[in-house]
Amino acid sequence: MYKGKKVVVVLPAYNAALTLEQTYREIPLELVDEVILCDDASRDNTPELAKRIGITEVLVHEQNKGYGGNQKTLYNRALELGADIVIMLHPDYQYTPRLIPAMVNIIGDGLYDVVLGSRILGTGALKGGMPMYKYIANRFLTFAQNLLVNHKLSEYHTGYRAFSREVLETINFNQNSDDFVFDNEMLSQIIYADFGIAEVTCPTRYFEEASSINFSRSVKYGLGVLRVSLTHFLQKRGLTRSHLYDRSKR
């Protein structure tokens, strides 16, 4: 609990057995009430390992639902459990769980509704081994997105995010893609709904076991990101009508 608010960490997992325990051991369990892992039909022993190391709740997709589909399951379950603050953390140890107290503090004290762990603030991305082509693509896409959605973030592509309950109950995240562009659709919805977003500098680690998408999927993701931002731009000006921005019926 943080000032009477229930804190839940959600872990979208796929073939995470090599890094899961290391990630979990750094989660500040004295602050976090529940840890939920959803395994998206992994080919390794991620679910069994998650149970063995003591993760509170382990959900399993019998068929792969995609990165976005995994998050939908996790956020819906966190809300069912009464979460007031939800932190989404990748279990591949690319992002440090040690930032969880800072993220919880920002939301729990009512300063912002959303907190992003940014790899781009400072020099963490390149120092942590982010490939140069990914860094350049990140900077280009972020520049284009800031222009189109009329906002100012250092990056839209981090996999380390914290949300207040109000955010998850307001935006219709279940409407979003089941693929990687889910993250950007969520941020577009959050900005459109006028929730406040904070960023904290986050060191990152790129290594063989850390999850990553290949070049062709990166291109598909980049085009999807631009599509989402253009849709946002047109929606704000009344030139199109997208169900992406409908309020949740929750």
What do you see in this structure?
The chain has 250 residues and is of the alpha/beta class. It is 39% helix and 15% strand. It has 9 helices and 7 strands. It has a 7-stranded mixed beta sheet, with helices on both faces. Helix 6 runs parallel beside helix 9 and helix 8 packs parallel to helix 9 (215-236). The longest helix has 22 residues, at 215-236. The relative contact order is 0.16. The mean pLDDT is 93.
Element layout with pairings:
Layout: E1 7-13, H1 20-25, E2 34-40, H2 46-52, E3 57-61, H3 66-80, E4 85-88, H4 100-108, E5 114-118, H5 124-127, H6 132-149, E6 161-164, H7 165-170, H8 182-192, E7 197-201, H9 215-236
Helix pairs in contact: 6-9, 8-9
Fourth-level CATH superfamily: Spore Coat Polysaccharide Biosynthesis Protein SpsA, Chain A
Q: Segments where pLDDT lies below 50 for 5+ residues? A: none
Coarse structural class: alpha/beta
Number of DSSP-assigned strands:
7
Helix share of residues? 25-40%
Strand content: 5-15%
Task: Write down the CATH class.
Answer: Alpha Beta
What overall geometry do the principal axes of the alpha carbons give? globular
Features:
250 residues, alpha/beta, Spore Coat Polysaccharide Biosynthesis Protein SpsA, Chain A, 7-stranded mixed beta sheet, 9 helices, 7 strands, globular
Please give a quick description of this structure.
The protein has a single domain (7-245), classed as Spore Coat Polysaccharide Biosynthesis Protein SpsA, Chain A, CATH 3.90.550. 39% of the residues lie in helices and 15% in strands.
